[in-house]
Write a structure and sequence with these properties.
The protein has one domain: (Glycosyl)asparaginase (Glutamine Phosphoribosylpyrophosphate, subunit 1, domain 1). The chain is α+β, with helices and mostly antiparallel strands and 311 residues long. A hairpin with a 5-residue loop joins strand 12 and strand 13. This is Isoaspartyl peptidase/L-asparaginase family protein. Pfam families: Asparaginase_2.
Length: 311
């Protein structure tokens, strides 16, 4: 029981106490707690890290609070294009989807790609055809409709402006969700899911489904799930860079995360954060923004849930 752990995020950005009402604060914390506790229960019952991260991310996808799955933001065309990835640290197998529109839970489709194909990433129509062939649940456009998301899109849909999740004046929130886990067998896994950017065009794809950028897991080093401005995380190859610093330079998990998130990304303007977990059970949740929706639970310890820097 003591050698299991899970951590997750629900997005990072300019998240301050005054930006959320008490009711919103409570709703976010409850959603994070539910996801982390459900994922931890899988581990406590002897389940795999892959199963735990898949379930935790699925729960966050089902919540309209987060920019993934049901809460995905609107594209320039008024549609929803979602990306996701999942990776096994034991085998280095991975599954990912990019630009899918009517898939209820992109992370479940990603897991099916990992399990039932020789591919890593499928996109658009092909990914949706794969979902149909493997019994993955689809959903109509109405399922993804959220009044707040629609209002955000309405403000910018006639312009060439794109927004990172729900930007309000200076307030930026990157709504990607993700989880990392360590199971009793010593295996790590990572999963990430996102709806991308409000008013995005040209089938833009971010870092979340790209193995090594937004998602990575390796039993020899760590598991990482990122959230932030995807273009920067791709250019910095953030998730794999953290793994490399551990493998080749002997840094601890926290040292590697701080080097990439607090130094490398900051130098060229990359904002966001991540959750990471090492095979020894160490957890790191660094972010260089004002806040990050986050939670973790290690062994039989009390569940930790936080939003702001001050938490």
């Amino acid at each position: 029981m003591e050698n299991i752990a899970i951590a997750l995020h629900g997005g990072a950005g300019t998240i301050q106490q005054e930006s959320l009402t008490p009711a919103q604060d409570k709703a976010y914390r409850n959603a994070l707690r539910t996801a982390i506790d459900r994922g931890h229960s899988i581990l406590a019952e002897g389940g795999s890290a892959l199963d735990a991260v898949e379930l935790a991310v699925t729960i966050l996808e089902d919540s309209p609070l987060f920019n993934a799955g049901r809460g995905a933001v609107f594209t320039k065309e008024g549609k929803h294009e979602m990306d996701a990835a999942i990776m096994c640290g034991r085998t280095l197998e991975a599954g990912a989807v990019a630009g899918v529109r009517n898939v209820k839970n992109p992370i479940i489709l990603s897991r099916s790609i990992l399990t039932n194909s020789d591919h890593v990433m499928l996109s658009g129509y092909g990914a949706e055809e794969f979902a149909l062939n493997h019994g993955i649940a689809l959903a109509p456009e109405s399922y993804f409709f959220d009044k707040l998301r629609y209002e955000q899109w309405s403000e910018v849909r006639d312009s060439n402006i794109y927004q990172l999740d729900h930007t309000v004046h200076h307030d930026e929130k990157f709504g990607t969700v993700g989880a990392v886990a360590l199971d009793a067998a010593g295996n790590v896994a990572a999963a990430t899911s996102t709806g991308g950017m409000t008013n995005k065009r040209y089938n833009r794809i971010g870092d979340s489904p790209i193995i090594g950028s937004g998602t990575y897991a390796n039993n020899n080093t760590c598991a990482v799930s990122c959230t932030g401005h995807g273009e920067y995380f791709m250019r910095a190859v953030v998730a794999y860079d953290i793994s490399c610093l551990i493998e080749y330079k002997g840094l601890t998990l926290q040292q590697a995360c701080d080097e990439v998130v607090m130094k490398k990304l900051v130098k060229f303007g990359g904002e966001g954060g991540l959750v990471a977990l090492a095979p020894n059970g160490d957890i790191a949740m660094p972010f260089n923004s004002e806040g990050m929706y986050r939670a973790m639970k290690k062994g039989s310890q009390t569940t930790y849930v936080a939003i702001y820097k001050e938490d």
